Structure prediction request, 377 residues.
Amino acid sequence: MPLHRNARTDHRSLPADVGAYTYGLGHPMKPQRMRMTHELVSAYNMLDQMHVLRPKRATAESMARFHTDEYIHFLEMVTPETAEQLTYHGNRFLTGEDNPAFDGLFEFCSISAGGSIAAAQRIASGSYEIAINWAGGLHHAKKREASGFCYVNDIVLAILELLRSYPRVLYVDIDCHHGDGVEEAFYTTDRVMTVSFHKYGEYFPGTGTQQDKGRGKGHGYALNVPLRDGITDETYKGIFEPVMGKCLEIYRPSVVVLQCGADSLSGDKLGCFNLTMQGHANCVKFIKALGYPLILLGGGGYTVKNVARLWTYETAVALGIANEIDENLPWNEYFEWFGPRYRLEVAGNNMDDLNVRDGYLDAVRTLALEQLSRLPH
Ligand code: TV7
Ligand code: CA
Ligand code: ZN
Prediction:
């Protein structure tokens, strides 16, 4: 296969893989990062240590288990050519530059969602301990509209699938942005607990304060951890581990879904945290060590070489081989992207950690732990 080919080689054939789609020139979301991740995982010879599934694409019907029929039908119809016409005939499904109507949009969504639904089915069948879909994790998509680069909420669809078999699902979101679409979908139920760690304050989507805890039967089962710029590995661990430790102890989920958005890494184009690859992956290690059935999903991540590094490393964590991995990158199709050091490493920088000022993080942690201790257990 040629190295950088267009999303479609002609107007009949569909792209071979999810990494071939593009949101358009200049858009920060670059599906090619999935292809780079796959290449790197493959170059590390990890593919033969796992089952690589080729899940079915999600159908419009399966997407409509969460989304409205009219929104899904709109996504099926929309192309760059018809976008304007469709959008201004009473439809308000896509808004602005964040969610363009790009070529192959519906197929892209069906691959992303198909992967997460299949992950849920494989986990529920009991035949796998961990399932990964780096093309999933699109946490902003709403029932009847696209938001923040997300069109179809693969996470909600996967959780709905898990709820067919399991009584309680824990959703954990370490993307730099608030996991608003997933939170909203399960806001009134205690069968899904949603926990999001995110930058809060003059930042998209603007929701996710500690006052938002869920409603009705779901009260207390939405947990938000709003953070400030520059959080380091040490500070992040100091809130993630006590909060998630207590959460798992009290909620006792049957299964965990972890959204591993890579925009919480240091140096991300849209993120504002200061996590290294190790600090980010520590979250995966921590959850994995407790032995729950686990689904790992992608999400944000806009400095693409670091996204590929991180998700490759987290794949190694899932396989239990992270300690053995060679920090010098093996030769791969994208090798030149990883210069000048060509290493499996995302370093931090010297930015200020605004979370340690004035006891901010201590206050957030205390409030989060209080919310957890008020849940029945
Ligand atoms: C999960 N930030 C998604 C995160 C979604 C963030 C936003 C952009 C952005 C969009 C572009 C672009 C951009 C440099 C960055 C209020 C606005 C401001 C559009 C220009 N460059 C995830 C969504 C967020 C699109 N949106 O959690 C095309 O940044 O802040 C906003 C909204 C209105 C729209 N404008 C930005 O990580 C996957 N968008 C360049 C071209
Ligand atoms: Ca988050
Ligand atoms: Zn994000």
Observations:
- Residues 173-175, 177-179, 196-198 surround calcium ion (ligand 2) (CB under 6 Å).
- The first helix runs from residue 32 to 43.
